[in-house]
Design brief:
Length: 379
């Protein structure tokens, strides 16, 4: 069966193009800064890897020297923090001169995003194209020269594979997302809670391969160097203002209550919601719960990291039967939540609050439906 079985009305296409032009206009305001910061660190990692110097890949001084070779005006380090295996994947990018590579990178991610929109419009209908083109995190991620659209592609591919019963493939695809491992923290936890052993098997095999490759090419000293970089406290690029993040840690920070105990309580709440939200849930819901929960827990989560949550937004809007859950997905998918957050504290708390409410709605909906399933106490 052709994947182009659904036709998209011309009005929908015009609206999507108009929204895309709007995002391009917004992106033009930040794209130059992104070239010499966000993209610079990715290109630096690719460049050092291409030279075969894996053992020094995560040495801050080595990275800073390379960044200044590429952009002489660089004052401070914008560290490359992706794992070794992902640096190897990026290495061919450094065969292209830096300035040209940036535009190739933006084009690649734009094409991938359009591919995601196409998949959603064929899977859910043309309205999905509108919601996709409205979604701000993907647009901002591309404009920042980030690789956040990669995680959206991975999430969609894994969902599509699991939906067809290809569980091993789904797990293997999800493990590729470990290039930003902190954003998938609760996904394997959800697999265990659900007893999705085939998906977990595929995930663990590829994850072990990624760790093994990283250890072989860098040695244990290189792995330690990577851990030291991630834990460094003296690199400003690794320690952004917590109130600007979109995780639960930003909620108390926006109100001047920055205490480890408060963060611990918030993380415990998220984990509890994930436990409730995945038990007995259909594929679309448990994967959505796992992805949303994973984004709320780690300390460093930027707005563009929510790019992968476009999949849960689509799944919830078109598959959920609960009005409140769909409304929360709509709130997350609409631009105002992220636009308002740019006003600074306390308004910057809004994305984190909406994410937490979205997760709560997903978990509560699953709890209500679970009470009525055959074999349940109430059923």
């Amino acid at each position: 069966m052709s994947i182009f079985k659904r036709s998209v009305p011309i009005g929908t296409l015009i609206a999507a193009v108009a929204l895309s032009v709007f995002w391009i206009g917004i992106g033009s305001l930040i794209v130059e800064g992104a070239r010499v910061r966000d993209f610079l660190n990715l290109y630096t990692g690719a460049s050092i890897t291409r030279d075969g110097d894996f053992s020094q890949l995560f040495d801050p001084q080595t990275q800073l020297r390379r960044e200044r070779e590429l952009v002489p005006t660089t004052g401070e380090l914008y560290p490359f923090v992706r794992p070794h295996f992902y640096a190897a994947i990026l290495a061919p990018l450094s065969l292209i001169p830096f300035s040209a590579a940036f535009w190739v990178w933006l084009t690649l991610h734009s094409v991938l995003l359009i591919g995601c929109w196409t998949w959603a419009s064929q899977r859910f209908g043309p309205d999905a194209l509108i919601f996709g083109s409205l979604y701000l995190p993907t647009a901002v991620g591309i404009a920042h020269g980030q690789d956040s659209v990669f995680l959206l592609v991975i999430a969609i591919a894994a969902y599509a594979a699991a939906d067809r019963g290809k569980d091993l493939t789904a797990g293997a695809l999800l493990a590729i997302g470990l290039m930003k491992f902190h954003l998938l923290f609760l996904v394997p936890v959800a697999m265990v809670l659900r007893g999705e052993w085939r998906i977990l098997q595929g995930f663990c095999v590829v994850a072990a391969l990624e760790v093994g490759v990283s250890a072989i090419v860098s040695g244990w000293s290189g792995m330690k160097q990577y851990a030291d970089l991630l834990l460094a406290k003296d690199i400003r690029g690794l320690s952004p203002s917590p109130e600007l993040m979109i995780n639960v840690h930003s909620i108390p920070s926006n109100f001047g209550i920055d205490h480890p105990a408060v963060s611990a309580i918030a993380v415990t709440l998220v984990i509890g919601l994930v436990v409730v939200g995945v038990r007995g849930a259909p594929l679309w819901r448990w994967l959505s719960v796992a992805l949303v929960g994973s984004l709320l827990v780690p300390p460093h989560v930027y707005g563009y990291d929510a790019s992968m949550l476009l999949l849960p937004v689509w799944l919830t809007l078109f598959l959920s039967k609960k009005l409140w859950t769909r409304l929360m997905a709509l709130a997350l998918g609409a631009p105002p939540v992220f636009f308002v957050s740019m006003a600074g504290a306390p308004w910057s708390v809004l994305p984190a609050l909406v994410l937490l409410l979205f997760l709560t709605a997903l978990a509560w909906g699953n709890y209500q439906e679970g009470r009525c399933r055959p074999g349940s106490i109430a059923g």
